[in-house]
## 1
Amino acid sequence: SAMDIFDVVRCAVLLDMNGSVRVAGSYGIPSSVAQSLRLSYGSGLMRWFEENACLFDRVANANATDAVKEMQVLGGRLAVPFLSTGRVCGAFVVGEKASGCEYTFEERELLSVVSRCASAAFEKAREYRDTSNHRSRLDRILANITSGVVTVLPNKTVAMMNQQAERILQVRAVDVLGRSVQQLGSGFADIVLRTLADGKPRLRQEIHDPALKAMVGLSATPMGPEGVVVIFSK
């Protein structure tokens, strides 16, 4: 923990919560301060981080009076920013060392490493959240499309299919996802494989699927490194 690594008497994690920065977790800081403190991006420590994005030392940066006042409220001596998409989204604050000793150069460097690692974690979390939200929106759209939609990766495996595709092809997504496109029938696979091979779209193709005893009209569109997307209906 930070208390053990840096031998601090107090520390705090500050995070952006709907536009204002609050104490998300702390040690050695009065609960009344932790619960009531709100930092703004318009001034003080957060403004300083947006302009400098590096370690803040309450003593060395004494001329940044607004930031120093906020650090004093927190009982902080050093602070490092958390960044996401290049913007400040919080900070890690540590107080004086319990031993009374000064922070060494190596300890200051370690704090900067903590800042970079935490920022990378926030960035990954944001990317995951954005991807998850995008996938949820896509799933809602595909669920309301009356045509079947299937995507096939360059390695010739099925990556995605909507409910209409399951109904038309009479297969379950759980049985074919990650498996060869041949699982969807030889006629279907033939068009997909030729599209993967030459990168040319195939529009309004008709195939007869003996298993379905029906004609299926489909269009296959190459998507570069994403593979091929196929839209079809009976």
## 2
Amino acid sequence: AIMKHPKGFKFIHLPVQAGSSKVLSFMKRQHSVEDYLYLAEKLRAEIPEITISTDIIVGHPGEEEEDFLQTLDVLRKTKPSVCNRTRFVPRQGTPAANMEQLPKLVKKDRSKRVTDLFKEIALSNNQDWMGWQGKIVIDEFGKVAGTRSGRNFAYKPVIVTGDFAFGKI
């Protein structure tokens, strides 16, 4: 109900972190891939134009190629609009710091593959918005002089020309 309220953005940050429940258990996460898929599907069914943001961590110790391929599959299935990507870095004092680390080149390659796939997904998602017209809330200066940036109901950034005050619709 909150996500459907007209005064709220149709946006949620839903971090999956890995597409393999095995890797999620290595990470000591409290959710499974199935939990993430269920929530993403339910949100899209209820609010088709929702913006879903997620996080992906590649190269956790114990992540095998098959686990990584499952992560790519999750991205293909859920098509998030935002995907924060990072390579695993061990933190001192954590169980993962004592595990055998994946080679840097493996992590770099997996990170590139996630980035490449996400670029395809983002392009497809953004093409669905071509020609959209509607209300936005001005929230930033534009990068070009004389422009402002605002967000539409789905938290999509929209650039406009003019000297609009922040918060103006």
## 3
Amino acid sequence: MGFFTGSNVAFAILDAGHRVVEANKAASQLWSMSPEEVIGADASALFLNPDIEILAQRFSRAGAGNTVGFRAVARVGNGKGSPVEVHVASLGDGTVGLVVHDLSTLQRLERQHVREAEQYRSLFMNAPLPMREEDFSAVGEWLKELRESGIHNLNAYLDDNPDEVETAIRSVRPLRVNPACVRLLKADSAAQVLAGFRDVELTPGVVASFRTQFEALWNGDTHAEYQFIGHNYAGETFECRIYWNLRKNPDPSILHIDATMLDFTDLRRTQSRLEQQIADRDDFLAGVSHQIRTPLAAVLGLSEELQYQWNDLSKDERLDLLGIVVQQGFELAGLVEDLLVASSAQMDQVKWRPEPTLLVAEARRAIDLLDHARGRKLDIDLRGHEIAAWADPSRVRQILRNLIANAIKHGGSHVVIETGGDDSKNCAFVDVRDDGTGIPEEYTTAAFEPYWRSHRHTTNVTSLGIGLSVARDLARTMGGDVTYSYEDGWATFRLCLPLTQDESE
């Protein structure tokens, strides 16, 4: 009687006419009736469905030792219903006992569980970070067997048994991956990732990653994080940090792992680029210092000597010293002009004044500038017919000076300059060729980048590595271009500029 009256489950006893003769407090609460109202109530007043005839049939089937269970809807007040599960047992003399379980709370929890599961699935699938779920149950059994066999130092055991490590890795079963993970791994589909490691080569990075996870499980950790360097399905290296979490499960034999991957491959590449740029900057500043200091020291030193020893020097000695000052001045002026262009080209501030420009004449002037700067007559073969381009003469000389200086410094022993025109491209061109080995194929694009001369490619500290970059920037500013080719033992840099109106006609 104490159990009947004190239970939080609804109990009721019906007589042969299916009227309530006894009910506990939980029954009154379920049906939203006072105890007095419940007693004497007909079963048809207690349930919305099924009707009393169906109830009577079900009650009659409840005999000795036989119970009948069914789902129904209890009338809870104001005509509303609440889902319940009813169990009926015969008590003799036509009376039956009812045990009525309120299912509304259970259904509410089920709906909440479904809603939370859907929310989790949505967050998982739409998360911008790569995520994956894996079943480590087989690994858990393996680790349990190792511990029961007396293994105490898992790390040493794994070192001695690499085959078992590989078997354990291949036993891990991927359960789910999100699209971000598929993109990170550059897989054809999620199915490719879910195939796991059964038929793929286990790289040292993969083995090290799983060993970290095995040791975390061995130590009873529920969270872990570690760095991972691996290869995606396209064979490319990527680097990420993995945040690993052991999901709780009522069944301790089931081990599900959630892993979130923070990809910082681009960050590492950017960091490497910045480090290289800093190194290149330092090299560049050192080169600038050397390039400026050398001619400047000559100009200052010789000028000072001329100033204080003018009367002690012969006419020829004065002319020789002044010639060196002029040569070094030309060298310094060309360097400063290139630095100004290299700086302003990045800001689209290069100034130029276009006019009809004779390319052969400008090529001769560029050679003369280099003759003065080097203090000797350069052996350069100038060929081709005179042709006019629509360009700034001073900028054309600057481009040709850089291209010719590059050929002399880095090319072969013979330098040839040839002018011409290409009507199909509305182009007047100057080819600067040398019979050297040319630029290695893998560097043909990088050679036009600013400051490409660096300790990675050359030991020539007297070169700033901006000549080709300046030449191309100036040519493109004036509507042309500088291109490179290597054929039949000749390296060729071609300056192409728009033809003047007269030439194009």
